[in-house]
Automatic annotation (TrEMBL):
SMART domains: IG
Gene: CD300LF
Lineage: Eukaryota, Metazoa, Chordata, Craniata, Vertebrata
Domain Ig-like stretches: 124-220
Keywords: Membrane, Transmembrane
Stored CDD domains: IgV_pIgR_like (cd05716)
One GO term describing the cellular component: plasma membrane
InterPro entries in alphabetical order: CD300_family_receptors, Ig-like_dom, Ig-like_dom_sf, Ig-like_fold, Ig_sub, Ig_V-set
Keyword Transmembrane: yes
Name the record gives this protein: CMRF35-like molecule 3
Length: 255
């Protein structure tokens, strides 16, 4: 099965600050970054911008929300307080500083900075076998997360993007009464996540996290399959044949 070589960091919410997220990517790949924002910014413009230097005021806007420009697509999901940025067909020239931001007309913009390095010949640190999974309500889904050599001792977590709730090795009941179980196989450099008793509220963005690096997984939860009812059996009238010394007697069986 095809692996998705994608690195990503999830944002609990866009904010001003000096922190920077570093990502190391390969040419020809793609990256999708979910950027969460506060409800108060639903009506504000969202954007993705780039600069050769680490200064937001000098960045060049690559795309606004719900637009595609060249190899960049920005999509807003106001019902989720989230917009995503997808960069496709990555090139070494894409190396530089980026920001996902919300424009504020009467004050400073709010933003989160990334530094993306695109280099050839570098194995991905974190990857997933499938970047999106779907399960039925009440059912089970399984996700396999892969990591590079040298990361066996790093903490492995399964994190929900919107609230940054994370789960480590073991079994933990969530507030939705579903359960999360994580098992790590250091020899194969992979850890597996199993979510059981799925609820509709479990749907959304998650991340396989190793240390500070994450790779995204989108979970969809569909309606439970309708229960099937077996048709009831109908007994047909039957007869029983008896034999006696005087001959054959066939009385009715269904009296």
């Amino acid at each position: 099965m095809e692996r998705f070589w994608v690195f990503i960091f999830f944002l609990s919410s866009i904010r001003n600050g000096s922190s920077r997220r570093d990502l190391s990517l390969q040419p020809g790949g793609y990256i999708t970054i979910p950027c969460h924002y506060d409800k108060q910014y639903i009506q504000h413009k969202k954007l993705w911008c780039f600069s050769w230097i680490s200064a937001y005021k000098y960045c060049t806007i690559q795309a606004y929300a719900n637009n595609t420009a060249d190899r960049v697509t920005v999509t807003d999901y106001p019902d989720q307080n989230l917009f995503t940025v997808t960069m496709r067909n990555l090139k070494t020239g894409d190396t530089g500083s980026y920001w996902c931001a919300v424009e504020i007309e009467e004050g400073p913009d709010v933003y989160e900075q990334f530094y993306i390095t695109v280099t050839s010949g570098v194995d991905p640190v974190v990857s997933v076998v499938e970047s999106s999974v779907e399960g039925q309500e009440g059912g089970v889904v399984r996700i396999q997360c892969l990591y590079s050599a040298g990361y066996q001792s790093e903490q492995k977590q399964w994190c929900r993007s919107k609230d940054q709730r994370c789960y480590t090795v073991g079994r933990i009941n969530t507030s939705q009464n579903s359960a999360v179980q994580i098992s790590d196989d250091g020899r194969r450099r992979s850890f597996s996540v199993e979510m059981s008793g799925l609820k509709k509220s479990d749907a959304g963005w998650y991340g396989c996290r190793i240390g500070k690096l994450e790779v995204p997984v989108l979970l969809s939860v569909s309606d439970a399959a309708p229960a099937t009812t077996m048709p009831s059996a109908t007994m047909s009238p039957a007869t029983m044949t008896l034999y006696s010394s005087s001959g054959m007697i066939t009385p009715p069986f269904n009296k």
